[in-house]
Design a protein that fits this description.
Radius of gyration: 22 Å
Distance between the termini: 85 Å
Shape: globular
Strand order of the largest sheet: 1-4-3-2-5-6-7
Number of strands: 7
CATH superfamily: Glutaredoxin
Structural class: alpha/beta
Number of helices: 7
Strand content: 15-25%
CATH architecture: 3-Layer(aba) Sandwich
CATH class: Alpha Beta
Number of domains: 1
CATH topology: Glutaredoxin
Order of helices and strands: HHEHEHEHEHEEHE
Helix content: 40-55%
Largest sheet: 7 strands, mixed
């Protein structure tokens, strides 16, 4: 009887050794980026203010976007490219989705994965829209895409409204890393 049990274990182990394995997914985030494949943390106005203030010596590049916003979708690959080009520099990239929370699993996360974006993402949780907007910059009217860069001390260095080219995004990031001037693009006129 013992020989039959041992033979069964040996045969089972051999089957497992030659069984085909499921291939690893193409997009495999690092442990700190795993949230992009499961769910996005909700970003409240209080969390946003803390994110801007708590810099740990790093500048901050925040892009506010949505999957339903065509200019946001068109700009997104340049932001992903810039985040890759600036790896190793003292700047943190963050994306804040303005999509509805119920679209997180069906639209937002699949879009982030398709674009192979490997930086932190949040989904905006608006309890008081004006307070949330003002936490970024009082000049911002809430239009997207909107990009904000902050230096290592949490001071606003650039505000870009509307779809931007790579060169403008890079200049804004570089300002956050060391420029002295604050740059703002006035918000779009309200219609």
């Amino acid at each position: 009887m013992l020989q039959v049990v041992l033979l069964g274990i040996i045969l089972h182990a051999q089957v497992l050794a030659v069984a085909p394995r499921t291939p690893e997914p193409c997009f495999k985030p690092t442990p700190s980026e795993e949230h992009t494949t499961r769910h996005l943390e909700k970003l409240t106005e209080a969390k946003l203010r803390k994110l801007i203030r708590t810099r740990d010596g790093n500048a901050l590049f925040i892009n506010v976007w949505a999957t339903w916003c065509q200019p946001c979708v068109e700009e997104f690959p340049d932001i992903v490219r810039l985040s890759e080009d600036m790896k190793g520099q003292k700047i943190e990239f963050v994306g804040v989705s303005g999509d509805d929370m119920e679209d997180e699993s069906s639209k937002v996360i699949p879009f982030i994965e398709k674009e192979k974006a490997h930086f932190k993402f949040y989904i905006a949780k608006l309890e008081g829209e004006d307070e949330f907007i003002n936490a970024f910059d009082k000049q911002w009217g809430g239009g997207i895409p909107a990009t904000f860069t902050f230096d290592a001390h949490g001071r606003l260095k650039a505000f870009l409204l509307g779809e931007q080219r790579y060169e403008h995004l890079k200049a804004a990031a570089e300002k956050a890393l060391g420029a002295k001037k604050t740059t703002s693009v006035p918000p779009e006129p309200k219609k």
